[in-house]
Design a protein that fits this description.
The protein has helices at residues 13-24, 39-48, 58-61, 79-88, 103-114, 131-141, 162-171, 177-193, 285-288, 290-306, 314-333, and strands at 4-9, 29-35, 53-55, 69-72, 92-95, 121-123, 148-158, 197-205, 220-227, 232-241, 246-253, 257-260, 271-273, 276-278, 337-338. By secondary structure, it is an alpha/beta fold. The longest helix has 20 residues, at 314-333. It is globular.
Length: 340
């Protein structure tokens, strides 16, 4: 089969990861077009990735008859419209999370996706493609730890990026801490348990940058969640991990427990020096989930080639966003929120 010809919109930090992977690491795919409002990002695509066709307007890029699919890595507020436009053009779509910033636009997007059963849609929940998470999922599904009772998730960005986020938050809408970051952990809770979340209580605090209060953003947040079978989940989300990028998941069951990345280790090296015994940690998400990002795009391309749908669906995006929005509402109202 000929290579799947992909155009990408958005060449920020994550967009560059996906663009590089499509051009270098995904068999059966080629990056033929790139779209960004930033001229420097388009120069990167042309000079570093040898992309011949570059655009400043997404609508113009998807008119290109040379495209089979698009990879959407633009700011969150554009995702729903860009997914809809691409599906209507007959293109396969890989989109980063979230699908949208409100439930109505996501539901409208799903209606359009459902009208295109021969086109592949996949959402970027890359942790499902991480080897450690896949191994843990198999253990849970095989009953190795019995019935799940508690799931605990940490998702904390390195503090090195906090100052730049504050500048971003003052100018743009990230969707909030829970939609922007915890949505990955919310998806893991649903994935591991096979159950929906029906009640949340969330809270937050801005300590290092109190000015985030003025733009309704959170530096650190916590959510306690109850699932439909009364399984409990605890989320800790933040943007201020001084030691690096901290993603950790704990699964407690009636017969045992699992911990994934209990220490966010970069590798298997231990350093002994004047600071004592030191284990280097991952410093950012491209480093920690490098292979997972490659595997999810391999899956997307393979789905197109084999005419099948991805296991990560638009419905997963809808349900995770419902929970994330409920968490933010709980913070805003200081109340427990039931999810219908």
């Amino acid at each position: 089969m000929e290579n799947i010809r992909i155009g990408i919109v958005g060449l920020g930090r994550l967009g560059k990861v996906h663009a590089f992977n499509i051009s270098q690491n995904i068999p059966g795919a080629c990056l033929v077009a790139a779209c960004s409002l930033d001229k420097r990002e388009l120069e990167y695509a042309r000079n570093q990735l040898h992309v011949e066709e570059t655009y400043s307007q997404y609508e113009e890029m998807i008119e290109n008859s040379n495209l089979d699919a698009v990879c959407i890595v633009s700011p969150s507020g554009f995702h729903a419209e860009q997914i809809q436009l691409a599906m209507k053009k007959g293109l396969h779509v890989f989109s980063e999370k979230p699908m949208g910033l409100n439930i109505k636009e996501i539901e409208n997007t799903i209606k359009i996706i459902d009208q295109c059963p021969n086109q592949v849609f996949q959402l970027g929940f890359m942790r499902r493609y991480d080897d450690s998470y896949k191994y843990a999922k198999k253990l849970v599904d095989n009953g190795e730890i019995g019935e799940l009772t508690v799931i605990r998730c940490y998702g904390i960005d390195p503090s090195s990026g906090l100052e730049s986020f504050v500048k971003f938050a003052k100018a743009s809408n990230s969707g909030g801490l829970f939609s922007d970051m915890s949505i990955h952990d919310i998806d893991l809770v649903r994935w591991f348990s096979g159950k929906e979340v029906n009640r949340v209580w969330a809270m937050g605090k801005n300590a290092a940058y109190p000015e985030l209060d003025q733009v309704n953003e959170l530096e650190t947040g916590v959510a306690l969640m109850q699932l439909e079978d009364k399984t409990m989940a605890i989320l800790v989300a933040g943007r201020n991990a001084i030691h690096g990028y901290h993603v950790e998941t704990e699964l407690i069951g009636t017969k045992g427990m699992l911990r994934i990345a209990q220490v966010p280790e970069k590798n298997l090296v231990t350093i002994f020096n004047e600071h004592g015994m030191v284990r280097p940690t991952s410093q950012n998400f491209p480093e920690r989930f490098r292979e997972a990002f490659i595997c999810e795009l391999k899956e997307f391309v393979e789905c197109i080639q084999k005419n099948r749908q991805s296991e990560v669906t638009a419905y997963d995006g809808l349900q995770a966003t419902k929970v994330a929005i409920a968490c933010q509402r709980s913070v805003d109202t200081n109340q427990i929120i039931d999810i219908k």
